[in-house]
From TrEMBL:
It comes from the Bacteria. GO terms for molecular function: flavin adenine dinucleotide binding; FMN binding; tRNA binding; tRNA-dihydrouridine20 synthase activity; tRNA-dihydrouridine20a synthase activity. Keywords: Flavoprotein, FMN, NADP, Nucleotide-binding, Oxidoreductase, RNA-binding, tRNA processing, tRNA-binding. This is tRNA-dihydrouridine(20/20a) synthase. It is an enzyme of class 1 (oxidoreductase). The record marks N102, K188, R191, R304, R307 as: Interacts with tRNA. SUPFAM superfamilies: FMN-linked oxidoreductases. It comes from Rhizobium altiplani. Residues 20-319 form the DUS-like FMN-binding domain.
Length: 342
């Protein structure tokens, strides 16, 4: 991928994109570094970062990342075109491969700021924001949205939003195939209760063959992801990838044509230990790294003990990389090799 036009290249080449969704409190820099050790090609997303925080807050803490994370996209939250443009300018020097506008998060935090999923109600505002971001960005600017909110008719609301943001210059649209209910459902319930409607996303792509459209929401396995690629250009997994990151070990082979090598869990362990050691030396704590690794071997013999070690020992004062070594030692890696591509 190049940083300037990889979505256009995808449409030309037919190469799909496999992405790991932006997840607040989860996909921080340590999570992304960990995921990158398992897949070299998956497109990684930051947590949503509010434009105001970038403009007025601790930019280095909010925006810096390890170069190993590429390709990595910055997801922004906001509804003020000028502030979003300024956030894009500031982020430009950090080297992200994409800037994404959040038009799908239904949390109280974004509702109080009238952005996230609230923006589904004002597609004209989204278009102005995208145009402002495009004017200053030197990488693709994309949108991640829902199919609608509250009592909106997705058959009308979604194509209207897509047409407006594409006319404004958006390079791609990622669609979470559920409505969001701004009142009455929690963010967790909004990920589970509104029914999935993959077919409407397929229809959006069918009507726009020259536009990159990716799908998100409820995808649990790589087999399901592959099925979606019969209809759209990209697939995005969220909690399924976070809660059992071992499934990422087959992403490069299945979606990017890499040789089907078995995951070298010993090598991954060593790299994460070295990363944790650097983080601790810079004043960090092991738990900030280890918490993202807890679900790695879900369902395998020894996984319970692995989780116990990371969950209890990593939080102790003075905990170091040896905790990661002890956790990996509890796992049956033969079992991991047999099931990682399931």
């Amino acid at each position: 991928m190049t940083t300037s036009n990889f979505y256009a290249e995808v449409l030309t080449s037919g190469q799909p994109i496999f992405a790991i969704a932006p997840m607040i409190d989860w996909t921080d820099r340590h999570c992304r570094y960990f995921h990158r050790q398992i897949s070299r090609n998956a497109l990684l997303y930051t947590e949503m970062v509010v434009a105001d925080a970038i403009i007025h807050g601790p930019r280095e803490r909010l925006l810096s990342f390890d170069g190993a994370e590429h390709p990595v996209a910055l997801q922004l939250g906001g509804s003020d075109p000028a502030k979003l443009a300024e956030a894009v300018r500031i982020a430009g020097s950090y080297g992200y491969d994409e800037i994404n506008l959040n038009v799908g998060c239904p949390s109280d935090r974004v509702q109080s700021g009238t952005f996230g999923a609230c923006l589904m109600l004002t597609p004209e505002t989204v278009a102005v924001c995208v145009a402002a971001m495009k004017a200053v960005a030197d990488v693709p600017v994309t949108v991640k949205c829902r199919i609608g909110v509250d009592d909106q008719d997705p058959q009308a609301a979604l194509p209207d939003l897509l047409d407006r943001v594409l006319d404004a210059g958006a390079d791609a649209v990622w669609i979470h195939a559920r409505k969001a209910w701004l009142k009455g459902l929690s963010p967790k319930e909004n990920r589970e209760i509104p029914p999935l409607d993959y077919e409407i996303v397929y229809r959006m792509k069918e009507a726009r063959p020259d536009v990159f459209i990716g799908i998100n929401g409820g995808i649990q396995t790589l087999d399901e992801a592959a099925d979606h690629l019969n209809h759209v250009d990209g697939i995005m997994l969220g909690r399924a990838a976070y809660q059992n990151a071992a499934i990422l070990a087959d992403v490069d082979h299945r979606f990017y044509g890499a040789v089907a090598d078995e995951a070298d869990w010993g090598d991954i362990r060593g790299r994460m230990m070295a990363y944790a050691e650097r983080h601790i030396a810079n004043g960090g704590r092991l738990q900030q790294v280890a918490r993202h690794m807890v679900g790695l071997f879900t369902g395998l013999p020894g996984a319970r003990r692995y989780r116990q070690i990371l969950s209890t020992d990593a939080v102790k004062a003075g905990a170091g990389p040896e905790v990661i070594a002890a956790a990996f030692a509890a796992v049956d890696f033969e079992g991991a090799r047999e099931t990682v591509s399931a």
